[in-house]
Amino acid sequence: MKLFRLLLVALLFSCSDDSKETQETGEPKPIVVEMEKTNVPNNLTDVTGTYILENNREYGVREDGKYKILLTKSKYKDKDQKEKEVLTYTIFDVAKNKPLYFTVEIDVAKRLERNWEYYDTYNPEITDKKLVCKSRIKEENK
Question: What are the residues whose beta carbons fall under 8 Å from the beta carbon of 55, sequence distance 6 or more?
Answer without folding.
Answer: 28
